[in-house]
Amino acid sequence: xxxxxxxxxxxxxxxxxxxxxxxxxxxxxxxxxxxxxxxxxxxxxxxxxxxxxxxxxxxxxxxxxxxxxxxxxxxxxxxxxxxxxxxxxxxxxxxxxxxxxxxxxxxxxxxxxxxxxxxxxxxxxxxxxxxxxxxxxxxxxxxxxxxxxxxxxxxxxxxxxxxxxxxxxxxxxxxxxxxxxxxxxxxxxxxxxxxxxxxxxxxxxxxxxxxxxxxxxxxxxxxxxxxxxxxxxxxxxxxxxxxxxxxxxxxxxxxxxxxxxxxxxxxxxxxxxxxxxxxxxxxxxxxxxxxxxxxxxxxxxxxxxxxxxxxxxxxxxxxxxxxxxxxxxxxxxxxxxxxxxxxxxxxxxxxxxxxxxxxxxxxxxxxxxxxxxxxxxxxxxxxxxxxxxxxxxxxxxxxxxxxxxxxxxxxxxxxxxxxxxxxxxxxxxxxxxxxxxxxxxxxxxxxxxxxx
Length: 452
Ligand SMILES: [Zn+2]
Fold this sequence. Notes:
- This protein has 452 residues and is an alpha/beta fold.
- Helix content is 40%, strand content 12%.
- The chain has 20 helices and 12 strands.
- The longest helix is centred in the middle third of the chain and has 25 residues, at 277-301.
- The chain starts with a helix and ends in a 12-residue tail after the last helix.
- The structure holds zinc ion.
- Residues 39, 81, 269, 273, 314, 400, 402-403, 406 line the site of zinc ion.
Protein backbone atom coordinates (compact mmCIF):
# COMPACT_ATOMS: atom_id res chain seq x y z
CA UNK A 1 0.00 0.00 0.00
CA UNK A 2 1.96 2.95 -1.17
CA UNK A 3 -0.86 5.38 -1.87
CA UNK A 4 -1.68 6.17 1.73
CA UNK A 5 -1.65 9.89 1.04
CA UNK A 6 -4.57 9.52 -1.32
CA UNK A 7 -6.50 7.31 1.03
CA UNK A 8 -7.04 9.74 3.89
CA UNK A 9 -8.96 12.35 1.91
CA UNK A 10 -12.53 11.16 2.51
CA UNK A 11 -14.39 9.19 5.15
CA UNK A 12 -15.05 6.20 2.93
CA UNK A 13 -11.47 6.14 1.79
CA UNK A 14 -10.31 6.39 5.39
CA UNK A 15 -12.23 3.24 6.16
CA UNK A 16 -10.52 1.47 3.27
CA UNK A 17 -7.16 2.64 4.55
CA UNK A 18 -7.78 1.38 8.08
CA UNK A 19 -9.01 -1.94 6.78
CA UNK A 20 -5.90 -2.40 4.71
CA UNK A 21 -3.76 -1.38 7.69
CA UNK A 22 -5.48 -3.99 9.81
CA UNK A 23 -4.60 -6.64 7.26
CA UNK A 24 -0.89 -5.94 7.44
CA UNK A 25 -0.23 -8.78 9.90
CA UNK A 26 -1.73 -11.33 7.55
CA UNK A 27 -0.85 -10.26 4.07
CA UNK A 28 -1.76 -13.19 1.89
CA UNK A 29 -4.53 -11.79 -0.30
CA UNK A 30 -7.33 -13.90 -1.70
CA UNK A 31 -6.64 -12.88 -5.29
CA UNK A 32 -3.55 -11.87 -7.29
CA UNK A 33 -3.55 -9.91 -10.53
CA UNK A 34 -0.11 -9.54 -12.15
CA UNK A 35 -0.05 -7.25 -15.19
CA UNK A 36 3.04 -6.99 -17.39
CA UNK A 37 3.40 -4.31 -20.00
CA UNK A 38 6.01 -5.72 -22.38
CA UNK A 39 8.59 -3.03 -23.18
CA UNK A 40 6.74 -0.66 -20.81
CA UNK A 41 9.33 1.65 -19.27
CA UNK A 42 8.90 4.93 -17.39
CA UNK A 43 9.03 6.89 -20.65
CA UNK A 44 6.44 4.65 -22.35
CA UNK A 45 4.15 5.48 -19.41
CA UNK A 46 4.99 9.15 -19.98
CA UNK A 47 4.00 8.76 -23.65
CA UNK A 48 0.63 7.34 -22.60
CA UNK A 49 0.05 10.23 -20.17
CA UNK A 50 0.35 12.69 -23.08
CA UNK A 51 -2.86 11.24 -24.54
CA UNK A 52 -5.13 11.10 -21.48
CA UNK A 53 -7.14 13.94 -19.90
CA UNK A 54 -5.26 15.64 -17.08
CA UNK A 55 -2.10 13.72 -17.93
CA UNK A 56 -3.02 11.02 -15.40
CA UNK A 57 -3.10 7.32 -16.10
CA UNK A 58 -5.28 5.10 -13.94
CA UNK A 59 -1.93 3.67 -12.83
CA UNK A 60 -1.11 7.06 -11.28
CA UNK A 61 -4.31 6.99 -9.23
CA UNK A 62 -3.68 3.39 -8.22
CA UNK A 63 -0.15 4.09 -6.96
CA UNK A 64 1.26 7.59 -7.18
CA UNK A 65 4.76 6.49 -6.21
CA UNK A 66 5.82 3.51 -8.35
CA UNK A 67 8.94 1.56 -7.43
CA UNK A 68 11.57 0.50 -9.94
CA UNK A 69 12.75 -2.91 -11.06
CA UNK A 70 16.13 -4.12 -12.31
CA UNK A 71 15.46 -6.44 -15.23
CA UNK A 72 18.94 -7.75 -16.14
CA UNK A 73 19.30 -11.48 -16.80
CA UNK A 74 21.41 -14.06 -14.93
CA UNK A 75 24.58 -12.93 -16.72
CA UNK A 76 23.91 -9.26 -15.97
CA UNK A 77 23.06 -8.69 -19.62
CA UNK A 78 20.11 -6.97 -21.26
CA UNK A 79 17.14 -9.26 -20.92
CA UNK A 80 14.67 -10.64 -23.40
CA UNK A 81 11.07 -11.26 -22.42
CA UNK A 82 11.69 -14.93 -21.61
CA UNK A 83 14.42 -14.34 -19.00
CA UNK A 84 12.62 -11.42 -17.36
CA UNK A 85 9.20 -13.07 -17.31
CA UNK A 86 10.87 -16.19 -15.89
CA UNK A 87 12.21 -14.05 -13.03
CA UNK A 88 8.65 -12.89 -12.30
CA UNK A 89 7.13 -16.37 -12.62
CA UNK A 90 9.80 -18.27 -10.63
CA UNK A 91 11.81 -15.78 -8.53
CA UNK A 92 14.99 -16.96 -10.30
CA UNK A 93 17.10 -15.38 -13.01
CA UNK A 94 17.99 -17.31 -16.13
CA UNK A 95 19.49 -16.72 -19.55
CA UNK A 96 17.70 -15.14 -22.49
CA UNK A 97 15.38 -17.48 -24.35
CA UNK A 98 14.70 -19.82 -21.43
CA UNK A 99 11.12 -20.37 -20.31
CA UNK A 100 11.03 -21.07 -16.54
CA UNK A 101 14.15 -23.17 -16.90
CA UNK A 102 17.62 -22.46 -15.46
CA UNK A 103 20.59 -21.49 -17.63
CA UNK A 104 21.84 -25.10 -17.64
CA UNK A 105 18.90 -25.71 -20.01
CA UNK A 106 17.67 -28.64 -17.93
CA UNK A 107 16.73 -27.56 -14.37
CA UNK A 108 13.03 -26.77 -14.18
CA UNK A 109 12.13 -23.65 -12.20
CA UNK A 110 8.72 -24.09 -10.50
CA UNK A 111 6.34 -21.16 -10.92
CA UNK A 112 4.05 -19.33 -8.51
CA UNK A 113 1.09 -19.96 -10.80
CA UNK A 114 1.76 -23.69 -10.63
CA UNK A 115 1.79 -23.35 -6.84
CA UNK A 116 -1.54 -21.52 -7.02
CA UNK A 117 -2.99 -24.42 -9.05
CA UNK A 118 -1.81 -26.98 -6.50
CA UNK A 119 -4.81 -28.54 -4.68
CA UNK A 120 -3.41 -27.20 -1.39
CA UNK A 121 -4.08 -23.68 -2.65
CA UNK A 122 -6.90 -24.47 -5.10
CA UNK A 123 -6.77 -21.07 -6.78
CA UNK A 124 -8.23 -20.49 -10.23
CA UNK A 125 -5.73 -19.26 -12.82
CA UNK A 126 -5.94 -17.09 -15.90
CA UNK A 127 -3.54 -16.00 -18.65
CA UNK A 128 -4.41 -13.16 -21.03
CA UNK A 129 -2.31 -11.33 -23.62
CA UNK A 130 -2.60 -8.94 -26.52
CA UNK A 131 0.06 -10.98 -28.36
CA UNK A 132 0.19 -14.69 -29.11
CA UNK A 133 -0.33 -16.88 -26.05
CA UNK A 134 2.71 -19.10 -26.63
CA UNK A 135 5.04 -16.07 -26.67
CA UNK A 136 7.50 -15.87 -23.78
CA UNK A 137 5.62 -13.65 -21.32
CA UNK A 138 2.36 -15.63 -21.32
CA UNK A 139 4.35 -18.86 -21.73
CA UNK A 140 6.53 -18.84 -18.60
CA UNK A 141 3.72 -19.30 -16.04
CA UNK A 142 2.69 -22.87 -16.90
CA UNK A 143 5.46 -24.21 -19.17
CA UNK A 144 9.19 -24.93 -19.06
CA UNK A 145 11.55 -25.01 -22.01
CA UNK A 146 15.23 -24.37 -22.74
CA UNK A 147 14.27 -22.22 -25.76
CA UNK A 148 11.19 -20.13 -26.19
CA UNK A 149 9.12 -21.91 -28.81
CA UNK A 150 5.42 -22.47 -29.31
CA UNK A 151 5.92 -26.15 -30.12
CA UNK A 152 7.30 -26.78 -26.63
CA UNK A 153 5.08 -24.31 -24.73
CA UNK A 154 1.64 -25.16 -26.14
CA UNK A 155 1.47 -28.89 -25.22
CA UNK A 156 2.30 -27.90 -21.62
CA UNK A 157 -0.49 -25.31 -21.67
CA UNK A 158 -2.87 -28.02 -22.92
CA UNK A 159 -1.90 -30.11 -19.89
CA UNK A 160 -2.01 -27.27 -17.37
CA UNK A 161 -5.42 -25.86 -18.36
CA UNK A 162 -5.48 -22.29 -17.05
CA UNK A 163 -9.14 -21.66 -16.16
CA UNK A 164 -9.31 -18.58 -18.39
CA UNK A 165 -7.04 -18.42 -21.44
CA UNK A 166 -7.61 -15.52 -23.84
CA UNK A 167 -5.50 -13.94 -26.57
CA UNK A 168 -4.19 -14.16 -30.13
CA UNK A 169 -2.27 -16.92 -31.87
CA UNK A 170 -4.85 -19.11 -33.54
CA UNK A 171 -3.61 -18.94 -37.12
CA UNK A 172 0.10 -18.80 -36.39
CA UNK A 173 0.55 -21.32 -33.61
CA UNK A 174 -2.52 -23.03 -32.18
CA UNK A 175 -4.34 -24.07 -35.33
CA UNK A 176 -2.08 -23.89 -38.34
CA UNK A 177 -3.00 -25.32 -41.71
CA UNK A 178 -1.29 -28.39 -43.09
CA UNK A 179 -2.72 -31.77 -43.92
CA UNK A 180 -2.84 -35.14 -42.19
CA UNK A 181 -0.12 -35.57 -39.63
CA UNK A 182 1.18 -32.07 -40.31
CA UNK A 183 -2.10 -30.47 -39.31
CA UNK A 184 -1.78 -28.47 -36.09
CA UNK A 185 -4.94 -28.23 -34.00
CA UNK A 186 -4.13 -27.52 -30.40
CA UNK A 187 -7.43 -25.67 -29.97
CA UNK A 188 -9.41 -28.91 -30.13
CA UNK A 189 -6.92 -30.44 -27.70
CA UNK A 190 -7.43 -27.52 -25.30
CA UNK A 191 -11.23 -27.61 -25.50
CA UNK A 192 -11.37 -31.38 -24.99
CA UNK A 193 -8.75 -31.61 -22.28
CA UNK A 194 -9.74 -28.54 -20.28
CA UNK A 195 -13.52 -28.51 -20.67
CA UNK A 196 -13.57 -24.94 -21.95
CA UNK A 197 -16.38 -22.86 -23.30
CA UNK A 198 -14.79 -21.37 -26.41
CA UNK A 199 -15.49 -17.85 -27.71
CA UNK A 200 -14.60 -16.48 -31.13
CA UNK A 201 -14.92 -12.70 -30.91
CA UNK A 202 -15.76 -9.75 -28.64
CA UNK A 203 -19.53 -10.29 -28.75
CA UNK A 204 -19.20 -13.97 -27.87
CA UNK A 205 -16.80 -13.10 -25.07
CA UNK A 206 -19.25 -10.59 -23.60
CA UNK A 207 -22.07 -13.16 -23.74
CA UNK A 208 -20.05 -16.11 -22.43
CA UNK A 209 -21.35 -17.88 -19.31
CA UNK A 210 -18.43 -20.30 -18.84
CA UNK A 211 -20.67 -22.92 -17.21
CA UNK A 212 -17.68 -25.02 -16.13
CA UNK A 213 -15.82 -21.90 -14.93
CA UNK A 214 -13.45 -22.49 -17.85
CA UNK A 215 -13.15 -20.07 -20.77
CA UNK A 216 -10.98 -20.16 -23.92
CA UNK A 217 -10.57 -17.62 -26.71
CA UNK A 218 -7.64 -17.86 -29.12
CA UNK A 219 -7.98 -15.74 -32.22
CA UNK A 220 -6.12 -14.18 -35.11
CA UNK A 221 -2.41 -14.02 -35.79
CA UNK A 222 0.53 -12.87 -33.72
CA UNK A 223 -1.26 -9.95 -32.07
CA UNK A 224 -4.56 -8.26 -31.50
CA UNK A 225 -4.76 -5.43 -33.99
CA UNK A 226 -2.74 -2.55 -32.56
CA UNK A 227 -5.05 -0.19 -30.69
CA UNK A 228 -4.31 2.72 -33.03
CA UNK A 229 -5.20 0.62 -36.10
CA UNK A 230 -8.54 -0.79 -34.97
CA UNK A 231 -10.32 2.34 -36.22
CA UNK A 232 -9.04 1.56 -39.73
CA UNK A 233 -10.76 -1.82 -40.00
CA UNK A 234 -14.57 -1.71 -39.66
CA UNK A 235 -14.72 -5.51 -39.64
CA UNK A 236 -12.45 -5.82 -36.60
CA UNK A 237 -14.35 -7.79 -33.95
CA UNK A 238 -11.84 -9.02 -31.37
CA UNK A 239 -12.06 -7.92 -27.72
CA UNK A 240 -9.83 -5.29 -26.14
CA UNK A 241 -7.47 -6.29 -23.34
CA UNK A 242 -9.83 -4.43 -20.95
CA UNK A 243 -12.80 -6.55 -22.10
CA UNK A 244 -10.72 -9.68 -21.65
CA UNK A 245 -9.76 -8.67 -18.09
CA UNK A 246 -13.40 -7.92 -17.19
CA UNK A 247 -14.63 -11.33 -18.32
CA UNK A 248 -11.67 -13.15 -16.81
CA UNK A 249 -12.33 -11.59 -13.39
CA UNK A 250 -16.06 -12.40 -13.70
CA UNK A 251 -15.27 -16.10 -14.24
CA UNK A 252 -12.22 -16.50 -11.98
CA UNK A 253 -13.79 -14.72 -8.98
CA UNK A 254 -16.34 -17.53 -8.67
CA UNK A 255 -13.62 -19.66 -7.07
CA UNK A 256 -13.96 -19.51 -3.25
CA UNK A 257 -10.18 -20.07 -2.94
CA UNK A 258 -9.38 -17.00 -4.99
CA UNK A 259 -7.51 -16.62 -8.27
CA UNK A 260 -4.18 -15.73 -9.87
CA UNK A 261 -4.53 -13.82 -13.15
CA UNK A 262 -1.60 -12.78 -15.40
CA UNK A 263 -2.30 -10.12 -18.01
CA UNK A 264 0.25 -9.09 -20.64
CA UNK A 265 0.07 -5.88 -22.66
CA UNK A 266 2.41 -7.28 -25.29
CA UNK A 267 1.77 -4.86 -28.11
CA UNK A 268 3.58 -2.00 -26.32
CA UNK A 269 6.88 -3.81 -26.95
CA UNK A 270 6.11 -4.43 -30.61
CA UNK A 271 5.19 -0.78 -31.18
CA UNK A 272 8.35 0.31 -29.34
CA UNK A 273 10.50 -2.05 -31.43
CA UNK A 274 9.08 -0.20 -34.41
CA UNK A 275 9.97 3.14 -32.69
CA UNK A 276 6.35 4.09 -33.36
CA UNK A 277 5.57 6.92 -30.92
CA UNK A 278 1.82 7.21 -31.55
CA UNK A 279 1.30 3.45 -31.67
CA UNK A 280 3.29 2.99 -28.46
CA UNK A 281 1.36 5.72 -26.64
CA UNK A 282 -1.99 4.33 -27.78
CA UNK A 283 -1.19 0.78 -26.68
CA UNK A 284 -0.06 2.15 -23.31
CA UNK A 285 -3.48 3.76 -22.92
CA UNK A 286 -5.18 0.49 -23.97
CA UNK A 287 -3.11 -1.31 -21.31
CA UNK A 288 -4.08 1.37 -18.76
CA UNK A 289 -7.75 0.78 -19.67
CA UNK A 290 -7.20 -2.87 -18.75
CA UNK A 291 -5.51 -1.77 -15.51
CA UNK A 292 -8.62 0.30 -14.73
CA UNK A 293 -10.82 -2.80 -14.87
CA UNK A 294 -8.49 -4.69 -12.55
CA UNK A 295 -8.10 -1.71 -10.20
CA UNK A 296 -11.87 -1.20 -9.91
CA UNK A 297 -12.24 -4.85 -8.97
CA UNK A 298 -9.33 -4.79 -6.50
CA UNK A 299 -10.60 -1.59 -4.90
CA UNK A 300 -14.13 -2.94 -4.42
CA UNK A 301 -12.93 -6.39 -3.37
CA UNK A 302 -10.36 -5.22 -0.81
CA UNK A 303 -8.59 -8.58 -0.81
CA UNK A 304 -6.75 -8.54 -4.13
CA UNK A 305 -3.08 -7.78 -4.72
CA UNK A 306 -2.72 -5.89 -8.00
CA UNK A 307 0.81 -5.49 -9.39
CA UNK A 308 1.58 -3.73 -12.66
CA UNK A 309 5.07 -3.70 -14.11
CA UNK A 310 7.13 -4.41 -17.23
CA UNK A 311 9.59 -7.07 -18.28
CA UNK A 312 12.02 -4.50 -19.71
CA UNK A 313 12.08 -1.19 -21.55
CA UNK A 314 12.17 -1.18 -25.34
CA UNK A 315 13.67 1.41 -27.67
CA UNK A 316 15.30 3.78 -25.20
CA UNK A 317 12.40 6.17 -25.53
CA UNK A 318 12.98 9.75 -24.38
CA UNK A 319 9.93 12.01 -24.38
CA UNK A 320 12.15 15.02 -23.60
CA UNK A 321 10.85 18.41 -22.54
CA UNK A 322 8.76 19.47 -25.49
CA UNK A 323 6.84 16.64 -27.14
CA UNK A 324 4.41 17.71 -29.85
CA UNK A 325 1.32 16.26 -28.25
CA UNK A 326 -1.13 17.58 -30.83
CA UNK A 327 0.86 15.90 -33.60
CA UNK A 328 1.05 12.57 -31.73
CA UNK A 329 -2.71 12.73 -31.11
CA UNK A 330 -3.42 13.43 -34.78
CA UNK A 331 -1.76 10.22 -36.04
CA UNK A 332 -4.39 7.61 -36.97
CA UNK A 333 -2.38 4.50 -37.89
CA UNK A 334 0.72 2.61 -36.80
CA UNK A 335 3.84 2.82 -38.95
CA UNK A 336 3.34 -0.91 -39.43
CA UNK A 337 -0.11 -0.30 -40.92
CA UNK A 338 1.16 2.55 -43.12
CA UNK A 339 4.11 0.58 -44.43
CA UNK A 340 1.92 -2.46 -45.01
CA UNK A 341 -0.17 -0.39 -47.42
CA UNK A 342 3.00 0.78 -49.14
CA UNK A 343 4.35 -2.77 -49.48
CA UNK A 344 1.07 -3.98 -50.94
CA UNK A 345 1.27 -1.23 -53.56
CA UNK A 346 -1.89 0.47 -52.29
CA UNK A 347 -0.27 3.87 -51.79
CA UNK A 348 3.09 5.58 -51.74
CA UNK A 349 4.90 6.24 -48.47
CA UNK A 350 4.33 9.96 -49.01
CA UNK A 351 0.60 9.43 -49.41
CA UNK A 352 0.49 7.19 -46.34
CA UNK A 353 2.24 9.81 -44.20
CA UNK A 354 -0.15 12.46 -45.47
CA UNK A 355 -3.26 10.30 -45.01
CA UNK A 356 -2.52 8.92 -41.55
CA UNK A 357 -0.31 11.61 -40.01
CA UNK A 358 -0.98 14.79 -41.99
CA UNK A 359 2.70 15.01 -42.94
CA UNK A 360 3.17 16.97 -46.17
CA UNK A 361 6.67 18.39 -45.65
CA UNK A 362 8.95 15.36 -46.07
CA UNK A 363 12.48 16.44 -46.91
CA UNK A 364 14.49 14.92 -49.75
CA UNK A 365 16.68 13.19 -47.17
CA UNK A 366 13.64 11.69 -45.46
CA UNK A 367 12.24 10.47 -48.77
CA UNK A 368 15.55 8.85 -49.63
CA UNK A 369 15.70 7.22 -46.19
CA UNK A 370 12.19 5.82 -46.59
CA UNK A 371 13.16 4.39 -49.98
CA UNK A 372 16.23 2.78 -48.42
CA UNK A 373 14.99 1.72 -44.98
CA UNK A 374 11.20 1.58 -45.24
CA UNK A 375 9.25 1.49 -42.00
CA UNK A 376 12.21 2.48 -39.81
CA UNK A 377 12.52 5.75 -41.69
CA UNK A 378 8.76 6.37 -41.54
CA UNK A 379 9.01 6.04 -37.75
CA UNK A 380 11.99 8.42 -37.74
CA UNK A 381 10.03 11.03 -39.70
CA UNK A 382 7.14 10.81 -37.23
CA UNK A 383 9.38 10.89 -34.14
CA UNK A 384 11.16 13.98 -35.48
CA UNK A 385 7.85 15.84 -35.85
CA UNK A 386 6.65 14.53 -32.47
CA UNK A 387 9.91 15.90 -31.02
CA UNK A 388 10.70 12.68 -29.14
CA UNK A 389 13.74 10.43 -29.39
CA UNK A 390 14.50 6.76 -29.30
CA UNK A 391 18.00 6.54 -27.88
CA UNK A 392 18.81 3.06 -29.13
CA UNK A 393 19.91 2.76 -32.75
CA UNK A 394 17.42 1.35 -35.17
CA UNK A 395 17.33 -2.40 -35.12
CA UNK A 396 15.57 -4.57 -37.58
CA UNK A 397 11.89 -3.70 -37.64
CA UNK A 398 10.27 -6.98 -36.84
CA UNK A 399 8.12 -8.81 -34.35
CA UNK A 400 9.56 -10.50 -31.26
CA UNK A 401 11.79 -12.26 -30.47
CA UNK A 402 14.18 -9.42 -31.08
CA UNK A 403 15.92 -8.10 -28.01
CA UNK A 404 18.19 -5.78 -30.01
CA UNK A 405 16.03 -2.81 -29.03
CA UNK A 406 15.70 -3.72 -25.36
CA UNK A 407 17.46 -1.43 -22.91
CA UNK A 408 18.96 -1.81 -19.42
CA UNK A 409 16.65 0.90 -18.06
CA UNK A 410 14.88 0.06 -14.83
CA UNK A 411 11.14 -0.33 -15.24
CA UNK A 412 8.31 0.90 -13.02
CA UNK A 413 6.23 -1.23 -10.67
CA UNK A 414 2.88 0.00 -9.43
CA UNK A 415 1.19 -1.95 -6.65
CA UNK A 416 -2.06 -1.94 -4.74
CA UNK A 417 -3.66 -4.10 -2.10
CA UNK A 418 -2.67 -6.45 0.70
CA UNK A 419 0.83 -7.89 0.66
CA UNK A 420 2.32 -5.47 -1.85
CA UNK A 421 4.04 -3.07 0.57
CA UNK A 422 7.54 -4.37 -0.18
CA UNK A 423 7.40 -3.07 -3.76
CA UNK A 424 8.47 0.46 -2.82
CA UNK A 425 12.16 0.88 -3.42
CA UNK A 426 14.40 -0.27 -6.24
CA UNK A 427 13.97 -4.03 -6.39
CA UNK A 428 15.19 -6.90 -8.51
CA UNK A 429 12.79 -8.72 -10.80
CA UNK A 430 13.42 -11.88 -8.77
CA UNK A 431 12.25 -10.06 -5.58
CA UNK A 432 8.90 -9.57 -7.24
CA UNK A 433 8.90 -13.21 -8.39
CA UNK A 434 9.52 -14.39 -4.83
CA UNK A 435 6.80 -12.07 -3.52
CA UNK A 436 4.28 -13.75 -5.85
CA UNK A 437 4.94 -17.06 -4.07
CA UNK A 438 4.31 -15.30 -0.72
CA UNK A 439 1.06 -13.89 -2.08
CA UNK A 440 0.00 -17.37 -3.20
CA UNK A 441 0.70 -18.53 0.35
CA UNK A 442 3.76 -20.75 -0.14
CA UNK A 443 7.46 -20.10 0.36
CA UNK A 444 9.48 -19.47 -2.78
CA UNK A 445 11.70 -22.40 -3.76
CA UNK A 446 15.42 -21.61 -3.60
CA UNK A 447 17.05 -20.99 -6.96
CA UNK A 448 19.52 -23.57 -8.30
CA UNK A 449 23.20 -22.72 -8.23
CA UNK A 450 24.52 -23.47 -11.69
CA UNK A 451 28.28 -23.85 -11.97
CA UNK A 452 30.39 -22.23 -14.68
ZN1 LIG B 1 10.85 -6.97 -27.36
